[in-house]
Amino acid sequence: MDELKARILAEGQNLGHGILKIDSILNHQMDPLLMKHMGEEFARRFADKHVQRILTAEVSGIGPALMTGLVMNVPVVYARKQKPLTMSGPVYLEVAPSHTKGGEVLLLVSAEFLHAGENVLVLDDFLASGQTIEKLVRMVYSAKANLVGIAAVIEKLFEGGRERMAKYGVPIEVLVSISEMTDDGRIIFAN
Amino acid sequence: MDELKARILAEGQNLGHGILKIDSILNHQMDPLLMKHMGEEFARRFADKHVQRILTAEVSGIGPALMTGLVMNVPVVYARKQKPLTMSGPVYLEVAPSHTKGGEVLLLVSAEFLHAGENVLVLDDFLASGQTIEKLVRMVYSAKANLVGIAAVIEKLFEGGRERMAKYGVPIEVLVSISEMTDDGRIIFAN
Hints:
The structure is a homodimer of 191-residue chains.
Chain A: H1 2-11, E1 13-14, E2 20-21, H2 23-27, E3 29-30, H3 32-45, E4 53-57, H4 62-72, E5 76-79, E6 91-97, E7 104-110, E8 119-127, H5 131-142, E9 146-156, H6 161-166, E10 172-181, E11 187-189
Parallel strand pairs in A: 4-5, 4-8, 8-9, 9-10
Antiparallel strand pairs in A: 1-2, 6-7, 10-11
Helix pairs in contact in A: 3-4
């Protein structure tokens, strides 16, 4: 997705240790039109999968997932990282390591929003080590829903997430792949 | 906004103590098309305000703010509640009491995303006590930006937020107003 690549090159910062700062377009500020284009692209790539629901995680997955849901016209569920007072009833619960915050984060999804037999697309902002996405995938399995695909806005090829996800046997679609983030601050794309 | 009112009546739950659960359409699962309609309505109401940026808070403000930003074609900034590793440089920092989580939450906005002289619309999911929204307003003031309006999807009239916000002298627009949440579980709208 050339538009996104150009924005990452113009505005992204390689903070070292594989940390990519793209706060101006995704993780703190959002460009709604760019995000709509992301949604259109994801919808195109999963057009034959009969997606019935999208599962993402708060916070930064919400924007891309919402726009993809808009184009696909399906509901979007975001895993909560804390239990709000309004969350009553049974939940699917997973614990994931946090790459950008340090430590661990909870991922909670109310059982009422994942249905057995339904086609679910898991979508997040980054596919890095794949650990967060894998926890979302586990929730889909726990609910006996059908995982039909894995989507991420940005892949960091050097963190092994794609290998980790291969065993699930579903299409993995990313909008841009970063093959290297060099010590001297460059961001190198694979495609 | 009749569509939203109907959905709240059909799917919302009055959990007592003024807590409204609308996890199926806003706070955990999102209906993208309904949210798009919210965005169109907010854009209509603030059409003459020359909004240049929208400021909201994670998590539940993101969806409505993003859709409003899409219709208005302006960037959307969401205050973070934790400092991610990617947040470097100066920030505007406020501390707000949390209604649905208990305790206090931080609100952090990078100084690079609030500009002096710019017209900012503050938009959140709920206008209840108004304490979270007021913290966002204070950030707009701290940045010497122009507050041009306050928007919320749902107002709880009985929690005093509108009175708290009156001193800022800007239009306050909400899509639905709840006047009462009764002990026997009803949700009563003001309009």
